[in-house]
Amino acid sequence: MEASAVSVLKRAVELDQSGRFQDSLVCYQEGIQLLIDVLKALKDESKRGHYREKIKGYMDRAEQIKAHVNQMKEDGKYHEQIKIPEDATGFSYEALFKPYISSALSEVWVEDPYIRHTHQLYNFLRFCEMLLKLCSKVKRIHLLTSQDEQADKTQQSSALSELRDSLSGQGVTLDVQYSSTIHDREIRFDNGWIIKIGRGLDYFKKPQGRFSIGYCDYDLRRCQETSVDIFHTKHTKTL
After folding, report:
1. What are the strands, taking DSSP E only, across 59-204?
2. Where in this chain does the record put each MIT domain (predicted)?
3. What value, to the nearest 5°, has the Cα angle with vertex 204 and ends 168 and 206?
């Protein structure tokens, strides 16, 4: 457990130093809890004092980050950028979006022109699964995408219709609309977070084969180079 705490807190410091404050806050909180669990098991009072001091230092930094993030959000100035390098791994939807999903999240807007081919439809399915897994209060998902005028639209409409029925069974409404002029990619949460991915949800590379590592687990899937810009606004619902 001590090794796990060290690993998570080391990651928190790295994220903190690179300006990824929301991600670092999640790691600090997880690492602090692990250190508290280690402290509970210690009998040596000198070691307990050492760990109390460590925990206090990390808690103070976490509070500073929380205050900084809250102030930036209050001022409408929050902006964070994540660079995903070519062939990088560890950027599954859960890893990318988890820091911005709160228990209060209930409505999501997805604008992405490329949710139409088979692998793109599966990407959107996995994104929806991630939402359900991380937040049980999600009740409505809006999708604005385009249709491929050169291809058979049956697969796209059939797949999204099936997903709509499946989500309905989970108590979630899927609203799908099409636009022939959509170009930008953007994901908005009703808790105020806005995530803009240069490539939209389609930033994963094709796996080498159906039985190759990364085919099922997207944390192990290699990525195409792209950037992710994160903003916060109090007025997401009116955008």
Report:
1. 79-84, 107-111, 140-145, 173-178, 186-189, 193-197
2. 2-76
3. 105
